[in-house]
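Q: Can someone sanity-check these two? First one:
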Amino acid sequence: MIAILDYDAGNIRSVEKALLSLGQVVSVTRDAETILNADRVVLPGVGVFGDAMGNLEKYGLVPVIKKVIENNTPFLAICVGIQLLFEESEESPGAKGLGIFKGKILRIPPSEDIKVPQIGWNSLHIEKPSVLLNGINENAYVYFVHSYYVKAEEEDIITSSAEYGVHIHASVERGNVFATQFHPEKSSSVGLKILKNFIDYKG
């Protein structure tokens, strides 16, 4: 069973629908026992960094997430989910992230050439072999919706990047923790392959 964390964030249902289409048993929940007993856990989300962290705290999910990761349960974070794994964000000064990874979330610099937020397809540069991106071709297109982007401190966790007026760390992974700035559940067959790679990961 895959537990999808329910913390009043956007886009939870489309993640659930994609996983169900791949034949998975899915529970959208904030119940700690259900989450800790799940085979896999997903932290989706569209929203504001500070509000999202506030909701995780309100529902008591911060220690649960840390316990899931500590237990070596496969864990996938999507969109604002990847941002929450880092330390802080320019979007919400003073709000602290989960601090699973070192680094900050920065605003995409506005310019005449690009629109912020980025909404749409962009190509991925594969930085290194990875579990999530196994079988994904260089320059494969995936779907982004964001105004802020990950700037990871630890180069070794970065598995792909994208260019959108700035160099964006598009996906990261370390051990049992996987995360994407883009939305695999909205990225057609490429995204479903990425989700299937997560499902198939045995540790």
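And here is the second, same format, sequence then tokens:
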Amino acid sequence: MQTTPNRRGQMSIFFAVLAALALSACSPTLPRSYVVLVPDADGAVGEVIVSGQKGQQVLKRSGQVAGTDGAAVGLTLGNDQLSAEFGEAKAAQPARPEHFMLYFISGGTRLTTESETLFAEILSRWTSRDQRAVTEVVVIGHTDTVGSAEGNTVLSMQRAQAVVDQLRAAGIKPSALTLESHGEKHPLVPTKDGVPEPRNRRVQVTIR
């Protein structure tokens, strides 16, 4: 049996179609130029203020969007949309710098047992990086305040050189290595002169 909608039914359908079209027309769309807040590599989300001719927007949620002119957009992009829009750009970014602390037994250039284990992790992190990118390893030697300042400058250089020698032996090119000596300056733990502090007897290694 075939049924035909009456005039009231036809009007209801007509208004329903108009409502759908109106909702579609009012749905926010991405402007040609916009700013979107994305989380850091560790998942943390900060805050961005976008100001322009059309106002000021404060972005606080992952995926929240504002026009570069400061206009409100009213859209939040999901993870799939973020990947689709910015996946290639994110992949092209250089890797974030990584920092490591190697600690030494007092008075010499011998690593502690824990730091010998960490050294293997440094090599692993180096080899996991895209070797086509420009990458360098910065090695900075430090000491505690035991001994003279002049002697500690020499000792911190010896510690940094010992680490550099191990890195070279493991296959890292000399051109990628930068060596510095800070002696007893810039301690992690400030102390009086002549105080032994294991955390200050260190070499900082940064891969960037």
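A (reply): Looked at the second one. The beta strands are 34-36, 48-52, 55-59, 64-67, 72-76, 98-103, 137-141, 177-181, 202-207. The mean pLDDT is 82.
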